[in-house]
């Protein structure tokens, strides 16, 4: 009986003595869906896209922009403008302006990762220009710019047209000693917003960028993929083996393939040389109709040409990353992981990487050449 | 605290037997009549008739069959002065005729349909039992309806109910033990089980618990079920109350103990596990993939019913982060004009649904349906338009209520509905943490429960793999062991032990195929 009394007391104490949790009723808060950071004379400018819920059964989008020394300071200032409490739990995308990216965004990412309210699956991206101008621009066809940019990045990443840049992955790359991160780059072009390329970072600072058309190759080097479309221009000699050569003699032969399954394999030769072999199972989507793709010999020829083309492109991209000394592909990590008693340090890898010899070998196999209904 | 109450009802020490004072039958005619009238307070329906000079008969009007009285008793009397109780007993041609010499006993028998025949000068009474049972005809069970299966339900007569069971199970091993319960009502109670299938332990427990009962009255089997429960303070029922004889027999055949109370149209089956409350007799009648689908649907419905509204309340109050983006706008727009926090809104709507349900159950049938439908629509639409609730919550609450009605057992359905309220309150105060807390408490409580000492959460805890094919799915009949591990007889336990041992022996010794066969034999 005594035991029961104590238990009852314990339960009542639990109920009464606990503090209240902070109420965050959905319609009584403003939801920040996107934040863009810029730097202005050493201060941070935060531009936030806020979804407001009105009693008139409509929700509207507001854009606030404030400048302060810290990002938290900008939030306080934005709060002063807003009728409802600002909450960042529904944040989907964080953008960084060009200038800020060049100065370094590692601190800003650290702040994001520290906030338990924010999910680690938000996307990070760099803006070509200022994020403020991007967000405050007039887009007649876009109702909610925050949602739009999220969808833009999200579907391209899901279709493996762009490298994935969730907070989780970026933080992982930052914490990994021998790896640099890359972010997608978005750009305002007139009344639309585009993904314009990939920004390469070194020690948290943007050091270079690649065009969006190279993202497939970057993905190919970084990981195994199973989606993504690639357009290639092969030399015109291939057409000689077509059914009626005299009529069709182009200089170039454009084709489109999409990856079904790729497998990347790294093999260390010595500490300055690495083999990168990628097997690419793909589907032929577009090719000139006169080419007899049912002929195995021709297919093999096409495969060979594709290999050559992709190899040269990949070599070019790796060379560029070596020039800016940003190891976004994680070669260093591989070296460190697959060498016994590796004494590799970050500084040492920075010296090795620009001169690293990468032997690229692609093995393409066309599995299907068009599906007819 | 609850144990104390229980102890009041179920005293552990031996209670005094029901021992009324013994009154001998007076030999003289007038003395007998006076004594009889004195004991039963001369009720209006007592009939006393003088057949001849010597013979007096007495019975209660309506409790006996008048046809039988005319044909088999009155017609047999001869106007002789040397008539004795023993000669009379031989002459009356009905199955049950007794001779008693004690008044109280006689009156007890008279009250359940016997005719007292007193012969002047003899200190004995001849009792001829010709009871007539006024009863409802057999009808389809209303509360546990099935699409496929027998369409007959129990009625209020003990004898009819036992007859129904005997029609299903024609087996000499079907045992029927009779008890009389209640000091005032003296209700007949029958405990039924199949010898050889039932676990004797359970029969002993039931017998013991019924014998230990010291109650004044017993009107319905539901009261008896509560009294013999393992824990009457729990919200969960531990014995099944069913009005279907096929379900009752199914219980008996799987080794359970059945109890039938006279005057109640529901039989009790025990021990019963939590999972079995969500199974319907119909599951056995349907093809197994369909039955499995329906069972899974029911279990999904429980989860929806218990946790849907609390999750809504918690998400909107504390965890706006988890709401998917496409849901965000519709949810917040529908909530925008509601002046209350989500917990008040949810509790209000849940209460409205409960009110409608209760009103529907209490109102006369003809009014009930109209009130239910019209009330639901009017309150639902009007509440949204007035801005008291959001329309998404109405969908969620209605879905939860609908889901709770898929539980085949009314008692368990009630529990599923009521248990939501504390969880909603916890969700409104502590968010998902509160829901998890409630879930943990619920699980601990369920794990602690037992039914006649058998684990309540079997076959999942303790894990009894043999019973899994007939748990949340129903596999084809050959996979299902007929006797659940919870309620199997000694004989079977020994048999399974033997099987295990022979298996071990076989593994241990390298036997030739010929020897192997011998071992199996």
Note down, in words, how this protein is organized.
- The complex is a heterodimer of chains A (373) and B (521).
- Chain A is of the alpha/beta class.
- Chain A has helices spanning 2-17, 71-81, 98-103, 106-114, 131-136, 145-158, 167-175, 215-222, 296-323, 331-338, 346-352; strands at 29-40, 43-54, 58-68, 85-87, 93-96, 123-127, 182-189, 192-202, 205-211, 229-235, 252-270, 273-286, 357-368.
- In chain A, the strands form 2 sheets. In chain A, strands 1, 2, 3, 4, 5, 6, 7, 8 and 9 form a 9-stranded mixed beta sheet that branches. Chain A has a 4-stranded mixed beta sheet with strand order 10-11-12-13, with helices on both faces.
- The model of chain A has no long low-confidence stretch (mean pLDDT 86).
- Chain B folds into 4 domains: 29-129, no CATH class; 158-283, no CATH class; 287-448, no CATH class; 497-521, no CATH class.
- In chain B, the strands form 3 sheets. Chain B has a 5-stranded antiparallel beta sheet with strand order 1-2-4-5-3, sandwiched between helices.
- Chain B is elongated, with a radius of gyration of 30 Å.
- The interface between A and B is medium-sized, with 27 and 25 residues.
- Chain A: Residues 23-187 form the Spore germination protein N-terminal domain.
Kindly report the greatest chain-chain contact and the residue count on each side: A-B, 27 and 25 residues
Query: What would you call the shape of chain B?
Result: elongated
Sheet with the most strands of chain B? Answer: 5 strands, antiparallel
Secondary-structure element sequence of chain A?
HEEEHEEHHEHHHEEEHEEEHHHE
For the record, the count of structural domains of chain A works out to: 2
Strand segment count of chain A? 13
What's the helical proportion of residues of chain B? 40-55%
What amount of the residues of chain A lies in strands? 25-35%
- If you average the pLDDT of chain A, what whole number results? 86
User: Residue ranges of chain B: pLDDT <50 for 5 or more in a row?
Assistant: none
Number of helices of chain A: 11
Residues in helices of chain A, as a percent range: 25-40%
Low-pLDDT ranges of chain A: none
- Round the mean pLDDT of chain B to the nearest integer and report it: 85
The end-to-end span of chain B amounts to 57 Å
């Amino acid at each position: 009986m005594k035991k029961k009394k104590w238990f009852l007391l314990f339960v009542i104490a639990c109920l009464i003595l606990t503090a209240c949790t902070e109420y965050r009723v959905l319609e009584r808060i403003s939801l920040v869906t996107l934040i863009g950071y810029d730097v202005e004379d050493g201060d941070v400018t935060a531009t936030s896209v806020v979804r407001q819920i009105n009693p008139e059964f409509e929700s509207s989008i507001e854009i606030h922009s404030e400048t302060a020394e810290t990002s938290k300071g900008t939030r306080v200032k934005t709060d002063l403008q807003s009728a409802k409490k600002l909450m960042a739990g529904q944040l989907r995308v964080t953008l960084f302006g060009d200038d800020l990216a060049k100065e370094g965004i590692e601190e800003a990412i650290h702040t994001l990762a520290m906030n338990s309210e924010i999910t680690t699956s938000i996307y990070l991206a760099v803006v070509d220009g200022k994020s403020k101008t991007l967000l405050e621009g007039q887009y007649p066809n876009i109702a909610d710019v925050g949602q739009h940019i999220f969808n833009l990045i999200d579907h391209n990443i899901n279709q493996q047209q762009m490298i994935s840049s969730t907070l989780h992955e970026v933080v992982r790359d930052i914490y990994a000693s021998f790896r640099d991160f890359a972010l997608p780059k978005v750009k305002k072009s007139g009344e639309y917003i585009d993904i314009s390329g990939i920004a390469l970072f070194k020690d948290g600072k943007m050091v270079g960028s690649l065009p969006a058309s190279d993202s497939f190759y970057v993905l190919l080097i970084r990981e195994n993929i199973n989606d993504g479309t690639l357009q290639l221009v092969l030399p015109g000699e291939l057409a000689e083996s077509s059914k009626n050569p005299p009529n069709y003699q182009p200089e170039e032969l454009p084709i489109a393939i999409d990856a079904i399954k790729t497998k990347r394999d790294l093999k260390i030769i010595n500490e300055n040389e690495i083999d990168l072999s990628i097997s690419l199972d793909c589907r032929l989507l577009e090719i000139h109709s006169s080419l007899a793709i049912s002929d195995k010999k021709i297919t093999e020829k096409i495969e060979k040409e594709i290999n050559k083309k992709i190899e040269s492109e990949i070599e070019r991209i790796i060379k560029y990353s070596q020039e800016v000394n940003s190891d976004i592909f994680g070669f260093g990590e591989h070296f460190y992981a697959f060498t016994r008693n590796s004494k590799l340090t970050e500084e040492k890898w920075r010296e090795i990487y620009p001169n690293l010899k990468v032997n690229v070998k692609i093995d393409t196999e066309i599995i299907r050449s068009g599906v007819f209904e | 605290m609850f144990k104390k109450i229980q102890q009041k009802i179920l005293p552990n020490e031996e209670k005094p037997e029901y021992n009324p004072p013994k009154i001998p039958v007076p030999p003289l005619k007038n003395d007998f009549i006076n004594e009889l009238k004195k004991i039963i307070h001369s009720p209006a329906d007592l009939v006393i008739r003088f057949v001849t000079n010597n013979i007096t008969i007495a019975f209660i009007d309506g409790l006996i069959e008048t046809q039988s009285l005319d044909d088999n008793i009155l017609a047999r009397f001869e106007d002789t002065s040397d008539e004795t109780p023993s000669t009379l007993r031989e002459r009356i041609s009905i199955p049950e005729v007794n001779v008693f010499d004690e008044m109280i006993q006689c009156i007890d028998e008279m009250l359940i349909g016997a005719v007292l025949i007193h012969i002047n000068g003899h200190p004995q009474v001849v009792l001829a039992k010709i009871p007539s049972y006024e009863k409802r005809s057999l009808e389809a069970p209303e509360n546990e309806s099935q699409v496929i299966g027998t369409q007959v339900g129990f009625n209020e007569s003990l004898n009819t109910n036992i007859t129904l069971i005997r029609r299903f199970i024609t087996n000499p091993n079907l045992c029927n033990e009779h008890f009389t319960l209640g000091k005032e009502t003296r209700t007949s109670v029958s405990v039924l089980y199949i010898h050889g299938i039932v676990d004797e332990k359970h029969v002993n427990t039931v017998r013991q618990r019924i014998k230990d009962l010291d109650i004044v009255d017993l009107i319905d089997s539901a009261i008896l079920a509560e009294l013999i429960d393992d824990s009457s303070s729990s919200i969960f029922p531990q014995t099944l109350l069913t009005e279907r004889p096929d379900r009752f027999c199914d219980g008996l055949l799987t080794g359970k103990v059945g109890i039938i109370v006279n005057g109640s149209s529901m039989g009790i089956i025990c021990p019963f596990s939590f999972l079995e409350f969500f199974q319907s007799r119909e599951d056995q009648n349907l093809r197994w993939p369909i039955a499995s689908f329906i069972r899974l649907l029911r279990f999904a419905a429980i989860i929806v019913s218990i946790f849907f509204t609390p999750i809504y309340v918690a998400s909107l109050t504390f965890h706006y982060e988890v709401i998917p983006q496409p849901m965000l706008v519709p949810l917040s727009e529908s909530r925008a004009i509601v002046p209350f926090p989500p917990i008040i809104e949810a509790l209000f709507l849940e209460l409205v649904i409960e009110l409608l349900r209760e009103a529907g159950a209490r109102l006369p049938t003809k009014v009930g349906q109209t009130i239910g439908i019209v009330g639901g629509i009017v309150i639902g639409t009007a509440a949204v338009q007035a801005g008291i609730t959001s329309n998404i919550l109405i969908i969620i609450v209605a879905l939860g209520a609908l889901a709770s009605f898929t539980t085949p057992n009314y008692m368990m359905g009630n529990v599923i509905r009521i248990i939501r309220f504390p969880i909603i309150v916890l969700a409104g105060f502590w968010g998902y943490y509160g829901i998890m807390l409630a879930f943990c408490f619920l699980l601990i409580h369920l794990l602690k429960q037992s039914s006649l000492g058998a684990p309540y959460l079997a076959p999942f805890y303790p894990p009894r793999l043999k019973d899994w094919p007939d748990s949340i799915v129903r596999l084809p009949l050959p996979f299902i062991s007929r006797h659940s591990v919870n309620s199997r007889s000694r004989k079977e336990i020994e048999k399974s032990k033997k099987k295990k041992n022979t298996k071990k022996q076989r593994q241990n010794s390298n036997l030739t195929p010929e020897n192997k066969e011998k071992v199996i034999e």
